[in-house]
Structures are given as C-alpha cells and as structure tokens.
Amino acid sequence: MSASITGEGWGLLLPTAYFQRLHHWQSGFPPRSRVLVNAHGRRFMDEDASYAVSSGIISAQDGPVWMVFDDRARRDLPPGYAHWNADHVLSEADAGRTLRAGTLEELAGKMNVSADTLQATVDRWNAQLPTGEDPEFLRHETLSAKGAAEPPAKIATGPFFAARTLPAELVCTHAGLEIDSSAAVLDVRGDRVPGLFAAGEAGAGVLGFRYVGGGNAVANAVTMGRIAGRSAA
Ligand SMILES: Cc1cc2nc3c(=O)[nH]c(=O)nc-3n(C[C@H](O)[C@H](O)[C@H](O)COP(=O)(O)OP(=O)(O)OC[C@H]3O[C@@H](n4cnc5c(N)ncnc54)[C@H](O)[C@@H]3O)c2cc1C
Questions:
Q1: Number of helices followed by number of strands (H, E) in the chain
Q2: This prediction's pTM
Q3: CB of 55 sitting under 6 A from ligand 1
C-alpha cells in the first residue's frame, strides 16, 4: 500500500523583493522607510508584521504587490549585503527591473496603479507614521516592539522606486509523509505502514497550512522526532 502524502502547498515563504536571491541574512533587508501597496495603489498591511503572517497577507491581494521607497531610503541602506544595498538597487533600476520615476505620479503609471491613489497612500503615510502613529495597521507598535529608536523617514525624496514583492524565500514546507500522533506513517487508506515512522520536514500533517510562529518547525522536528524514536523502539 502507498504511503499518504499530505500538505501540498503548506509551509512558510517570506516576503521577498524579486531581486533577492540569497537567504535574507546575505541578501539584506529592505529600507525601513517603505510602504507595500497593492494593485489598487493602497497600503494593506503593517510592513513590519511578523514573517509568520505577512506572506499570507501579501498572497491574499489580488494582483501584484509593490514595495515603494524613495532615494533617501535607498542611499541609507547599509553596505555589506548582496542585494539590499544602494548600488544594487540602482543597477536594478538601470536595468528597468526595479521601477524608478522622478515623481510618484510617474511611478504610478509604471506600476499601472491610480496616480491619485498612490499619491494619497504615500501622503497619508508621510503624515502619520514618520511623525507619530500608523492608525490603520499599528506599525508603530511593531517597530516599538522591535526596539526601533526612531520612526521611519518620510517617503519624499525623488527619484522614487517600486520593486515587486512576493512570498518567495522558502523557510520550510509542511508537506511530506502523513503521520499520526505516534509519528507512524499512514497509507492512503489511513492505516499505519508497519515499521515506518517520520518526523520534522519528512513527516506532515502536524503544522497545517500556515506557519504560526517562530520555532514551530524546529519544535515539530524535535518533538515528533523523539516520539518517532520512542514509537519505533
Ligand atoms: C533559512 C531557514 C530558517 C529557518 N528558521 C527557522 C526558525 O527560526 N525556527 C524554526 O522553528 N524553524 C526554522 N526553519 C525550519 C527548520 O530549520 C526545519 O523545519 C528543521 O530544521 C527541519 O528539521 P529536520 O530534522 O526535519 O530536517 P533537516 O534539518 O533538513 O535534516 C535532514 C537531514 O537529513 C540529511 N539527509 C538528507 N538526505 C539524506 C540521506 N539520503 N542520507 C543521510 N542523510 C540525509 C540532511 O543532510 C540533513 O542533515 C528554518 C529553515 C530555513 C531553511
């Protein structure tokens, strides 16, 4: 009898600018002064929301998601990272892959979103978070929890940039051989396959569709690994 495979499409992908090709500790981190906007030109989330939920929110948008930032934010990127650094962003813009424009109106045209809406989105953000709070998405609370000493700067210094952002950096899949609470592998009828156990990334059905918080995958691996060992013994 064949073992049951479950969890296709489950797991954790991190929000990723299209030009990130490495783990984020090597690729680097986007500017703090940025907004994520959807195909309607609107913000739709706390850009610093937990990685456990942010990709799900991005996936739920209909159409492309763009990270919008200005030249000051680009120039302020710390050196030393492979992709999120001032020169690399410039070279992506020179190549036409990151959108660049002298005004937000022109940028909106390249993004194919309403210029009025994008301008209103950035104006509203500039009037709120850089000088106080983000009442729509409470990003100030996230930044404060992360220990940020200062709020992000306004998005106000052209040229302006837009980089496509999508859930793409793979952390873990929750797919694999379906197991029960004893870590026994199940067959397609739901019966145990005699003598076969699985855990961690190999065993599936434990973590579900979404990653719900830091440490889940390692906790799953060590917990179900121990149970699998005991069951096998
Ligand atoms: C970049 C990144 C960041 C992560 N951060 C976190 C985090 O912060 N918190 C968290 O909980 N989880 C995190 N995870 C997920 C977590 O690391 C994994 O879910 C977990 O390590 C899986 O453990 P595992 O023992 O099932 O598999 P693995 O750790 O992949 O171990 C499988 C082992 O089997 C070996 N192997 C493969 N084939 C063979 C073979 N034929 N013969 C012998 N050996 C073989 C491999 O070399 C490997 O050592 C992260 C994952 C990544 C990629």
A1: 8, 10
A2: 0.87
A3: no
